């Protein structure tokens, strides 16, 4: 084990040694009155490589390693061994007793482990919690088997406290939440932003106080627990992690010590790979509470935590510097939350309830589209998506070649564009209730051909307008006669008519004619 792994393994994590440690006071380890000094101390305690990784994670420029199937199987075995070493795991054992068919650890065991692990594999009970669920916890702790096992045990303890015995061994569905939790979700107390950040990570936006109505702490965290696991169905979110934004500014400014305590508990037990934590506030009286929260976090999260003090506009611009797009932030410049919209909390909750009545789709399910995904649809949300902007640029680059190509060559060009989107990690997605699903390649090729035809119509309309403007500018307009000239001509005609009736004729130069002189 190298020095970096040794430091990571010995890293103190508050609450790692069993469930009872969650009752430790929040003030533990608090020596300074500012969280800036805590961050400086945390960063100085890390190695140079760990500091660089933390900074890269926070700004979304770190590289994500691909999963190794052999390494995953080995870590799953190690995690089971670590679970057997934990003595205090009552909630975990209860889940195993109530729902032994909740899943199997290995649906199809592939014997490709190291010899020392094969013996341990035969001693493992395969029941309680499926392979994919355990893989969530391993990814959240960067495949540290010991920390993943401890987090796994804590998760069942929190789940038992929030939902009771009936749900401790089953998946949590939206229909399992009560009216109070549903109201909290519909009001947008916590919501996933409709766009990922520039690194492709999901962003959870938490507003501590969305309305004058007071929700209990357990109500808020029951809704949060369901929200987290709903988002973690997306494998891209599991791999790249997520960013948490606690927006305590403006009308949503409300921060309670009890909420902070349970937030710490959730962070330590839910299998989320938190690689960015932003706390925005506009009341300096909140600084001690924020310092207490940061002091209770472990080094991994503290190194990736930043606080932002100022108005709503100032905090929004601070978030933008970390790659969070402005159009996705559901806050106005004066700090008012935005609840309405096609993907607002109320709309998504309604669609989610309808979705849960149906079996899960066979297609790839995407919770939040990524920066290279192409959204199929005519809605403004689809057209403004950054993946669609890249896709339109790709269509334009092939437009001239597509227009002169034969029918067979057009099919080849469409296939090439589909492969180009896939090569960059993107998908062609269509809306599926509150989520997105990937369409088949043949459907994607048809959409590409339709995009070419639409682009041709746009170009023809532009060309038609340009031709019309050219024709209009080539035809000279008739000479305009000013109103003053018309008035002068009219008065001259009137004078001439009067002179003729009197037998007078005006000669050039204003002289009278001979008839006048007679």
What brief labels describe this structure?
single chain, disordered N terminus, alpha/beta, 5-stranded mixed beta sheet, globular, 4-stranded mixed beta sheet, 518 residues
Helix content: 40-55%
> By helix and strand content, what is the structural category?
alpha/beta
DSSP strand tally: 9
Helical stretch tally = 22
Mean pLDDT reading: 75
**Uncertain regions spanning at least 5 consecutive residues:** 1-32, 103-128, 502-518
Radius of gyration: 34 Å
Q: Based on CA inertia axes, which overall geometry fits? A: globular
Structure description:
With 518 residues, the protein is α/β, with parallel strands linked by helices. The protein contains 22 helices and nine strands. A five-stranded mixed β-sheet has the order 1-2-3-4-5. The protein has a four-stranded mixed β-sheet with strand order 6-9-8-7. Helix 18 packs antiparallel against helix 19 (407-423). The longest helix is centred in the C-terminal third of the chain and has 34 residues, at 441-474. The model is unreliable at 1-32, 103-128 and 502-518 (pLDDT under 50).
